[in-house]
Predict the 3D structure of the following.
Amino acid sequence: MTDATGARAAGAVALTPILSARYRARDLERIAAAWPDGPLVMVGGDGRAEGPLDAVEVVLAGALPAEHLERVVTRAPGIRWVHSAAASVDRVLAATRSRPSIVVTNARGVFSRPVAEYVVMMTLAVGRRLPQLLELQRERTWQPLEGRELASMTVGVVGLGSLGAEIARSLAAVGARVVATRRDPSAADPIPGVETLGGPEALPALLAASDVVVLAVPLTPATEDLIGADELAAMRTGAWLVNVSRPRVVDEGALLRALRDGRVGGAILDAFRDGPLPAASPFYDLENVVITANTSWSTDRVLDRSIALFCENLERYRRGEPLLNPVDPAAGY
């Protein structure tokens, strides 16, 4: 923003609820240090601001529904840039679709390490049959079970972006055979341990070859319902599906039928379309399902990384430098 003399005026930064945590005093101090030009305006979970929005030019968009974020955008005509505190940007893009001039960035890379650790943990749990071992413990039954070493397992990573690449590297490091797909294989840097990399057309072959299928794609029109009845039928008998992507990437009705029929060995599900998942959901009744409450990303270090990334971009914005993690609205990520 500029004033009547052409000099840069002091704009404001709007801060919506971030991730699942409150802003700590040190977070606000760090943001204020990166933005000494103007005030910080806090926005509640209902989209209501604690101060005027007319001077806002930057928004840190966290856990705010699209309709509430859209209310903020509508009331702040000077917004130039919205930073998503999540890697997914479908809600931000929906809220800013009427303002194509707004630049959108995201938190790509902030969550890659914890999500990769989650996937490694769950792959080990599948290989060593942890769900069955826990069930035997509940039944007070002493029954040894033979597990599988990761070196004898193939893991298919669907979506080899920054998250998928970290997952693939982590799995390969502990001995798993890794195959992968991504939208444009030619644009990917070589990932040590990834045996084969194909485009979307290679998905059927990946499903047929994998003992564990990990979904790490962004939600776009091309990936919505990516895994449906046909894809589940193409999976290796007894294979497990791990979804650390958006819930709408999977047809949940088709998955429920495949799990009940035994066509799919099991599923590790970290997010659901109807979330929080109601207590009456039939997924809770299935012994071959592990449910986590959207916690694959949640560790003691992600908030620090998220604030650090935003502050670095805030300083870049003030200096007129290119921002990190720009989003292509046409691609959806």
Remarks:
- The chain has two domains: 12-110+300-319, 112-291.
- The longest strand covers residues 56-61.
- Residues 12-110+300-319 form a domain with the Rossmann fold fold (CATH 3.40.50.720).
